[in-house]
Specification:
The complex is a heterodimer. Chain A is mostly helical. Chain A contains 6 helices and 1 strand. In chain A, helix 2 packs parallel to helix 6. In chain B, strand 10, helix 10 and strand 11 form a beta-alpha-beta unit. The relative contact order of chain B is 0.07. Chain B is elongated and about 120 Å long. Classes of the chains: A mainly alpha, B alpha/beta.
Chain lengths: 191, 338
């Protein structure tokens, strides 16, 4: 309640909203991709096997491990991202993550749900087309660090250089009655 | 009326019998009732209303002497003093009628001025913090009232609509002044008046239109029949549920069950939380999907020996990310939670 009303013409979609989607999308997309590259090309031999999209064929083990690493890091990032979205500019470290209990439960639950999908035999390879991973969890941890650095850096830049109040609301100066706003809700009252 | 009936009433101690009423009209701002006085066996008219309108219709004082200009000025000064203290001022007048079936104009002329009444109707305690909350939230509160300008100013100050620091020459004006202004003149004002006194229904509509021309949204509260046109003209009409007239309630989009301004502020707060959470939820879903698209599109570059791309995510994994991983946090951003 300490901000002016949002712009009714552009509504939700404005420049900050678009740049948020792109920047967070890039940050969250880059980490799993890099995990895939590391598992297949840097640690592995670069052998992508034969027809690994359809089953655990010859030489598909590396690809299946890489998929599990991609899946794990993407899942963790999406869940972490839900916390990061609690506020458009405030750092995640200043937030009370327990404030929204359902959010906290769904993030913890979503993370725990990773383990059965990766480790239950048959489910992992026939349904999800991936296999057990070990050291690849390190990539998942690295993704978290990368995401936090990227998202916090982006938020820092927004706090530092972004227009005051821009984003979900229009930019205005001092909020005394009668102040000119570009577009604004006005309450009329009758005595 | 039959003589026997009059006698019956007299026995019961009743002196006046209601005959006729000229109802209140916001254009003349006064009303008159006509009674049969059984003691004097005459017809007598009583009038009440806005003092300046009553004075126009008065020729005599209560003693029956002709009202001099001095006396009229004295009455107006007294009225200003009452109004300056935030009192609603009514003037009362009466007249003994000599003819039958007089027209309203005829009845409401040459009356005896009886006196002034000052009524104090204190604004609710929560009004001041609510108005301040609105101002912090970028909502400009205007007051369009039928009261006298001095009363309106005093009440507006009491509830914080105008403060010494924000008051300018045009922040408080009368409806006569506002109605005289052309649309161009109104648009050239730096700020619209915050308080308009002695408003008619047309003034209120004119104000709503002026706000719309400035490209802003309006929410309008009101209770009376007079407010209905402006409730309809505003983007959000808010009628009073308890004191409101049926017409106002029909014209409005929202009916307040407790007639309290603070409730509107609460509703704005609730609405903003819903909007904010909607933005968070959309942002989360769309940026997560953007990430998935990047992974999958760039992933097309990973080709095996036969030249077919090897997907970094299998179809079931993608479904899982969208339907399980993203969905539950999205539910958690329901409007209920901060």
């Amino acid at each position: 309640m300490h901000r002016p009303p949002h712009n009714v013409i552009s509504g939700v979609f404005n420049k900050e909203f678009a740049s948020d989607i792109l920047v967070y999308g890039l940050i969250m997309g880059a980490a799993p991709l890099l995990s895939f590259v590391i598992v297949v090309y840097i640690v592995g031999t670069g052998d992508l096997g034969t027809d690994c999209n359809h089953g655990l064929n010859l030489g598909c083990d590396t690809v299946y491990r890489a998929r599990a690493a991609v899946f794990a890091s993407l899942t963790v990032l999406i869940l972490l991202h839900a916390f990061e979205m609690k506020h458009s500019r405030r750092s995640i470290f200043t937030m009370n993550l327990l404030e929204n209990k359902p959010l906290f439960i769904s993030v913890v639950g979503g993370s725990l749900a990773l383990f059965p999908t990766i480790y239950i035999p048959k489910v992992n390879d026939t349904v999800f087309k991936m296999t057990d991973i070990t050291w690849e969890w390190g990539l998942c941890a690295a993704s978290i660090v990368w995401y936090i650095l990227g998202a916090e850096g982006y938020k820092f830049l927004k706090r530092r250089f972004g227009k005051k109040n821009e984003g979900i609301v229009v930019s205005v100066g001092k909020m005394s009655p009668g102040t000119e706003l570009s577009r604004n809700t006005t309450v009329e009252t009758l005595k | 009326m039959a003589q026997s009936e009059h006698l019956e009433n007299k026995k019961q101690g009743i002196r006046y019998i209601h005959i006729q009423e000229h109802h209140f009209d916001s254009t003349v701002k006064r009303m008159t009732v006509i009674y049969h006085d059984l003691d004097q066996n005459t017809k007598i008219a009583f009038m009440k209303g806005a003092p300046e309108r009553i004075l126009d219709a008065c020729l005599y004082n209560s003693q029956g002497d002709v009202l001099t200009d001095d006396a009229k000025n004295q009455v107006l000064r007294l009225m200003d003093r009452f109004a300056g203290e935030g009192l609603r001022v009514l003037a009362l007048a009466s007249k003994t009628l000599k003819e039958e079936n007089m027209s309203r104009d005829c009845v409401e002329s040459e009356m005896n001025l009886l006196g002034l009444v000052g009524i104090y109707d204190p604004p609710r305690l929560e009004s001041l913090p609510s108005v301040q909350e609105c101002q912090r939230a970028g909502i400009v509160v205007h007051m369009l009232t039928g009261d006298h300008i001095a009363t309106a100013t005093a009440i507006a100050k009491e509830v914080g609509i105008i403060t010494p620091s924000t008051q300018t020459r045009t922040s408080v004006i009368t409806a006569q002044e506002f109605d005289r202004m052309t649309d161009v003149e109104i648009d050239s004002l730096q700020n619209l008046p915050l308080v308009v006194a002695r408003c008619s229904p047309a003034t209120k509509v004119k104000m709503v239109k002026a706000i719309h021309r400035r490209g802003r949204l309006t929410a309008m509260t009101g209770d009376g029949v007079n407010d209905s046109p402006s409730l309809k003209a505003a983007d959000v009409g808010i009628a009073m549920g308890l004191a409101g007239s049926d017409v106002a309630r029909q014209a409005a989009e929202i009916v307040l069950a407790d007639d309290n301004f603070a409730t509107i502020v609460g509703a704005v707060e609730e609405g903003r939380r819903i909007f904010d959470n909607l933005v968070k939820f959309m942002l989360h879903l769309m940026s997560s999907n953007c990430a998935e698209v990047i992974v999958l599109v760039v992933g097309l570059a990973f080709m095996d020996a036969s030249g077919k791309p090897v997907y970094p995510l299998s179809p079931v994994q993608i479904l899982w990310e969208n339907l399980i991983t993203s969905a539950f946090p999205a539910f958690a951003y329901l409007p209920l939670f901060p």
